[in-house]
Design a protein that fits this description.
Number of strands: 15
Radius of gyration: 64 Å
Mean pLDDT: 79
Shape: flat
Helix content: 55-70%
Strand order of the largest sheet: 2-1-4-5-6-7
Strand content: 5-15%
Length: about 1000
Amino acid sequence: MIPIQVTIEGLYSYQERQTIDFRNLTEAGLFGIFGSVGSGKSSILEAISFALYGETERLNMRDKRAYNMMNLKSNSSYIEFDFINHENKLFRATRDFKRNSKKFDDVKPSSVTFYEKRNEKWIPLDHSDAEQIIGLSYANFKRTIIIPQGQFKEFLELGAAERTSMMKEIFNLQRFDLQNNVSVLNIRNKSELDQLQGELKGFEEISAEQINSQKENLTKEQQKYDQVKNEHQQASEKYQQLKSLKTDFENLQQKKEDFEKISADKLKIDALEKKTNIYDTVFRIFNPLLNEKKKLSHEISARQKEQEVHIKYVAETEKNFTKIREQLLSLQPKFDALGQSKTQENDLGLILQILKFSTEIKTLEERTQKGSEKVQEVEEKQKNTLKKINDLTKETEALKPKKIEANLLISVGNWFVHKKNLNDLQHKQTEKLIHYKGLITKVLEDLKPFNINPENFREDFKLKTDSLETGRKELSQKFDHLKIQNELSRFANELHDGESCPLCGSLEHPNIVGFHDVNTELNDIQEKIQSIENELLKIQKQTSEIEKILDRKKIFEDQLRTEQEVLNQLQKEILTHRQNFIWENFNADQENDFELKRQQSFTIEKQMEQISQLILKEREILEKEQETLEKYKKALDEFKLEEAKKEEQINTNRSNLKTLNWNDYKDQSYPEVFDLHQKLAESNLDVERNYQTLTNQEKETAPKLAEQKTIVNQLAIRVSELEKEISSNEESLQLALAQQGFTTLMDVQNILIEEIHVQEKRNQIQQFRIQFETLKNGIQELEVKLKDFSFNKEEFHSVEDQFKIIETTLKQANDTVVKTISEIDRLEKEFKKKESLLKNLSELQKRSENLKVMTNLFKAAGFVQYVSSIYLRQLCDHANVRFHKMTRNQLSLQLNENNDFEIVDYLNEGRTRSVKTLSGGQAFQVSLSLALALAESVQATTKADKNFFFIDEGFGTQDVESVNIVFETLMGLQKENRIVGIISHVEELKEKIPVSLSIVKDEERGSLIKII
């Protein structure tokens, strides 16, 4: 897995949304995340783990995880993590949870969504299983990719069962777990065996003798059937002849009875036919004339009633129209004088405005007088405020020459502070030089007994060590291969031609691997490995002591050179700093005099600031007074302008008077004139409104009256036309009565009252005629057919009974033959099936014996543990390559007979001890070596181009030299396409790592991320 980007908001100390783009960091190969304790470094890894798996190291569900993870100043939390998996596919995991607005400590569970980027679009997945995407469970994820704080030694201290489970998941060792395969095969084989034995219980009575007995019985029954079949054919022919004759005689008798019944209804049908014909004729001739007469009578009655209504409406309309004209004549004189009256109304309105403006002008004159007095008062206050401001300004100008410039004071003060710091550093640096010189002298004394050349001895020892290490590694791999070969030889020996394979059931084994006894080779290789390890131990002891002394000497010499350079640089800085003192008013050796002058300047500056505050307050007062003055002047101008406008309006109104004289109303009050104006306006409005209403009514009534008169005339014409049509209809009726031979119209109406359905009756008559003729012809045909025959019932019944008996016997004989054939067929099929089942039973019983042997071989996952131990030993060998270097060839890692890790201590004659005896720094070194070796194996297994893992803390346990060795190891990983992220607060690492992030915790904003 390669991280791309993570976004955090409202999580732990991350209050604001923070985003880390890992792309620039991972390109460097090695990067760091640094910050003080509690700044939020480890929270980044915890956010990634929680986004993927919903799990964290610090909290579980019982700890109210969602509440405790959320920032206390936030109401929601959000995590978004983009990453590339081992298949080089880009995925995104998001989680968020929110706080209940009504209950602070109630934080709702997080919602999680996983996405995959396809065609530049984020497609949501239908699951949130990170293990399915990454290929690791959470437990193994934190052992191989992100190693949380305090969990670095977990893999080292895992028990055998947990470690085997981890190796099984990471390296897909379940393919070697054949126990389940054998168990499934065994269960399946036993189930098939039980099922087969159960099926065979149903075939106990099936035999060849039973089949032959049934075939002999079939021959006998077939002969009986053929004999009965001949007798049945003869009886059937005779029976069918008598049955047909019986049917003809019965049919003749029935037709005669039906003909007698239908002949009795013939007279009724004849009468009905005559009556129907008369009704049809009358209906066709008289019904249209009668309907027309009825229609004309109804219409003339309706038109006469409508005519009466309209005549009455015309009379009422003429009366109303006359009344409207009389009212218009009486109102016409007032309407003619309406123009003069409206002019008077307008003049009274102008006089009302003149009276109103005169009153308002008096009010404005009073307000103008008061405003002028206020203006004079504010102008006097302004003069006094200006005098105060001038006095304070003069006092400030007098203090200015006595004050020293602030920039000058700051510059001189900084110079004295820097001078003191440089002197302190020079004193401390001198003490360091004396200390390191003493250490180097002591180291040289320790090196004299070895009598070696420090420049070349490492190359000689390295050549010998590399040669021995290569030999041991090759022998170890050969030793593991021979052990697997020895274990598998037992299984291969069990395979024989013609026998089924215990695993797959195959009967063919074309390529059986041959093995030979390798125990002797195993013992020889083990002795050679022990000899090489003893030789390595001897070299490592000698090398270790020399390297310790030389390393200490090199470290002290490097430190001495570094400290001397620092001292030289400090002396140069002190000289340069002295030359930079350029202020003539001060003495570089009299710091106390400078401090006294600075205090005096501060006092003067404070006085000036107080005076400035007073001036500022007075200016604010002056500004407010000026605003008030301008406000009053503006109001006075508005009053004068308004007064002039109203005087002008009064003059205009007086000139616009047309009929009334102003002098007649100037002494009257405003309410009196207003009352006169109101009455006149109402009177004019009534006259105009009434005249308009009457005019509109006259216009509406005249057309209506003319329209109603026209309608009355048209109705009279229509009534006359209808009377003529009724007369013509009566003549047509009388003519039809005479032609059809009827005396009165009543005779016709009596016939039509019956309402006969002509077509229905004619269909009834036709059906009767057809039925009558059909029966008559049928009787004649049967009498001719049966002329020479007679029918005996007793003879027929005798033949019928005999036929039924023979038919029953034939059916029984046929059933017996069919059953016998079916039984023979069943027995033959069952017999063949029994033979097949017995053959399968023999094979399954043989396979059951083989599977018992395989169950014993693979029980308790023994083979998986064996393969796991091989992987662990290889992992241990790979880890030792780095662990040897980190410990200067003093320690190595190995597995004991229980597959638990142990430490080989070469400083103590290569004896072994528990990994729990390691110091914190050594435990970190061996854990890091294992983690790197495990990462290499994971990379090789997943065939990924790059490998990534995160280390949280651990470097605080290392001394300076160990930190350098670990750092060199991590830097070398870039060549192996591996990316390492480090979380630490160790400053030495921060200086060495080229690319890193800095986490700073702000009291108000929370944790903030900065790229260094």
